[in-house]
Structures are given as structure tokens and as C-alpha cells.
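Cross-posting from the modeling subforum.

Setting up a comparison between two proteins and wanted a second pair of eyes on the formatting. Protein 1 (sequence, then C-alpha cells):
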Amino acid sequence: MAINLSLERIRLLASHLPPYSRPTIHVAGTNGKGSVTCMLSSIFAASGLTVGRFNSPHLVSVQDSILINEQSVSLEEYSLSRAAVESADQDYGTEVSSFEMLTLVALQIFEKLRVDVVVIEVGMGGRLDATNYIPDDSILLSALTTVDLDHQLFLGNTVELIAKEKAGIARKNKPFVLGIQKYAAVENVVRSVVEQTGAHFIAAHSAQRRAWDDTIDGPLPPTFSLNAESFRPPPAQPITFTSSAFPDSLSALLYLNGSHQVENLSLVLTITSTLVTHPLCASRMPSGFSERVLENIKTGIRNATWRGRLSFHRLTVSSPSPRAITVLVDGAHNRASSETLASYVSNLVTMLDGNPQMRILRLTYILALSHSPPKTPKDTLSPLFASRSSTRFSVQTKVAAVRFTSPEGMPWVNSVPPSEIAATVRESVSGVGLWVAPDEGEIQGQLESALEWATTEGTEGEDGAQELVIVAGSLYIVADFYRLLARQEANPS
């Protein structure tokens, strides 16, 4: 099925369904919009609000994209709403796309449950995305995370054109908050679109990293270690943020990994400040919202988790002998997000370099990519293999290329052949071990085989050696990893 961006079908079908009226925050962007929606909903939930959240694509199952207070809706709730929307679609012959269908199902669930606030992630682009059919009266605020090159076939070949499409979610007389940007041209384009729409342009204020303070943050956590049997995660990121909405400078701990999350948090806190201070927003929020948020915002920031984005997990591999490994999973799927992943891995290496016992780090990438021209495997993967600064210890790199399972309800999504990934790796870096899954045939078992290959050179009993497996390249391979992890947790051996 081809992607046909339009609001005609979804608006027609929505006119035959119960109207949507929930106060909604609408978030677009190339990278970071999922993290921003995650942090916002965590802050609202910690403040005692009932929060609906819609993210796409889903990870393990389709209802994972629809959350109430950070929990996926039940299959029963999802199925009931899905049946009602499908029945209306058939009755009126609207023939909505699968994403338009999912969007309507999510909004019908939020309306039925009368949630206090909804946080919506745009699917792709903005102006013509299905989520942009939401009535103006329901939109509290629109926001835009970082803009970069992706989905050029649909959105345009420059960041300026892409920014213009994404800024199309702006609504008249409503605030539009722009996050911190990599390209200066983005702000000029977005400001122009927002002003033409009659929305209120607001640039995000920057949250700042600060030193760890025992009096605020408690004792500094133990030293970072990748050892699966005694894994110690990287420490949280201490931040500070100043805004007229907060009586004092806000100091908090951010547990989402990666320095880019501080930029995402900057947008989140500017949105929160705007909700508290902007008359049109404050009047739509529940009674006592400002006081509750100010009291609980630190807890909300601390509690925020976002699966599949620089997430550490412990997994057991069975061959050559059963043992636990540490796996970092990340949905990096374009050049910008691969640069973020590469930067984070470089920071991990730097942290390990402070350990005088470290001699060897065995680093294995298990990669799968979605076929999405004009984006090429080289565009996405080359940042991962850029040269790193020297370390006291040896970093030994291997790469496995695999395919992912086709995501439910998205038959147009296909894997890049592993042979193409392998060719890109060979072109980008020399001297790495390679394991390449077949381009054709059965996909089931490719990830498991790659994991076993990744751990053939064990670190057990080897002084000064640590290992890390990184699963990346697409959220769909990340989803396969979570399915495998769920099977292990359901049937521990």
C-alpha cells in the first residue's frame, strides 16, 4: 500500500464518529518527538493527571502505541474501539489508511475515557499527517523537535522544506514551541509559517548540564560497568532550568541516556512553562494544575523511560554456553540519530577509559535497516564507524547484518538486504568481523543467531575485558529484540 498523505479521508470518517474534545499537545519533528512526548506524559502522570499518549510506530504490538498513564491500553479496549471505527469506515466507504485508522482508534479511546490531557506524536511530516485533523479547539499547544533530513520523498529534499511541512501543525492563536535546532535556517522557516498561521511563536529555553550535587541528587552512583552479572548503568544527567514559571531554578535528574535528551528536556520544560503561564492553556487544564506540576515535575523527569532509545538490557544467550550479556538497543534510523548513537557510544568508551583495569572492549553492532529511498545504508550507518579518539584499552568491533520481522499493519515496510548493509560496512571501516544473514528466506531466528555469533568470544574470566552488543538501525529490529526479551522473561531457564 502506497503512502498517500491527505486529511480528506480521516476528516470524513471522523465526522461520523463521536467528536474528539480532549485537551491535546501535538508534537512533530524528525528526531526526539517520542522522547518529548514520553517526558511530558511522565510529568503529567506524576502530577496526578490522567494522561493519554499516542506514539508511532508501535514496538511489540499495535496497542503499545496507545497509552493511558504510561500503560498500554488493554487488547479488549483497543479491539472495541477498533471495531467501531472499522464499522464506520465500511459504512461510509472512506477507505482510510492503516495509520489513519490507528489515529482515530487512539483518539476515540482517549475521548471515551475522558482523559485530562493527551500528548500526540505526529506520524510523519505534520501538515498532512493524520494527527493534524484534530480540531483547533482541542489543541492546547503545538511543538517541534529537531528537524533533519528524513522521508525526503514525502517532505522535500532540504531541511527548510521539511521544516515547513512540520510547522504545518501550527494553530491560530495557540502557542507553537520550537525546540533547539541543529540548522539555523529551520527557525526562520518555522517562524514564518507560525506567524502566517497566526500562532504564537516561542523558542525553547535551554536546560543546562550541571555538576552532581550530593545535597540535591544524593550520593553519586557506583562506577559504570557493562558486566552483565553486575551491570551498573551510566549515572543520571543532573540538569538545571530557569523559567518565570518556576519560583526557583529547577534542579533535577534526567535518567534518559544521551546528551541529546537534555535538548529534548529543554523543549519539554518550555512546553510545561507555557502550559502554566499562557492564558489559553492554563484555562483548559484541570484545577490546580500549576501547583501540582511545580510540586511533582522533578519526579516526572526522573520517572521518564523510553524503550528502544539508548536502553540497556540483560539478555541470556545459549550458545556456545548459556550466559548473560549486556545489550544496548536504539532505534537510530537516519543519519542524525546514528550520529547521536555514535556520540553516546563514544561517551561510554570515555567512561570506561577511567577504569584502570580495562584492557579490551568487545563491541558488536547488530544492524537492520528499513528500505526508505533516497536514504541509503551509507547515509545511516557511516556515523557509527567514524574514527574514535584513542583509549588506553583496545576496542574490538564486529558487525552483524540482519533483517527484521515485518511490522503488523505496515506491509509496505521492508528490510534492506543484509548484503547491502555488509557492503556499506566494508566500505566504511576496515578490519571488522562480519556476520551476514541471508537476503532471502526465513527471517525468524536471524537476530538470535547474530546474538550468538556476537558472543562467541566470551569475556568470562578474562580480566579487564568487557563486552557490549548494540542492536540498532530501525525500530523494527528493536521490536524483534523486545519480543525475544519478553519470551525469555516469560520462560526463564
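Protein 2 (same layout):
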Amino acid sequence: AHAQDPAQATRVGVAVVDTFVWQSLASVAIPGVTINRLCAASLALLGALTRWPPPLRRWTTTALGLAAIPLIITPIDRTVDFLMDSSLRKLYKVPGEPPAPH
């Protein structure tokens, strides 16, 4: 479909790579690490500061991790936008978003 317009094929390829990298960072890698570390820290703190039984500490840790999700979405998204604008997106000179389809 894009064989007749190499520029269009390039724009599509750039958009695919940009979207894949952004989603990988903003939806998988960074939230996963953030929630994992939050849960690890909360479990350690609950173990040190309470006498709650281990199952209650684990369930509380799970609840804290789930409760953190809405709070971390916007900061992570904005950070990934900034990081990509400062690095990868400079390669194709379109700050903020992948090239718009025509």
C-alpha cells in the first residue's frame, strides 16, 4: 500500500516505532518497576512498624499497589513524553507526538 509513496511508508514506520517505545515505557516498564518498588517498600515498612500477621501485610501491600495506579499514570506519561522528546524524537524531529497521518 505504501510502496508507491516512500515518504508515507517512512511516516508510518516512525509512528509505529514511536508508539511501541512509548507504550513499552509508559504502560509496561516504568509502571511495573514503580509499583513493584512501592509494594516492596510498603511490605518492608509494614513488617517493621506493625505486628500484623503476614497475610494481612501482603493484602495491604497489594491494596496499596492497586491504589497507587491512578496516582502514577499522569506523572509517568509526562515523564515518558519528556524523555522521548529529549532523545528518540529528536532523531525524526517531531517533538511531542509521532508524525500526523496525511
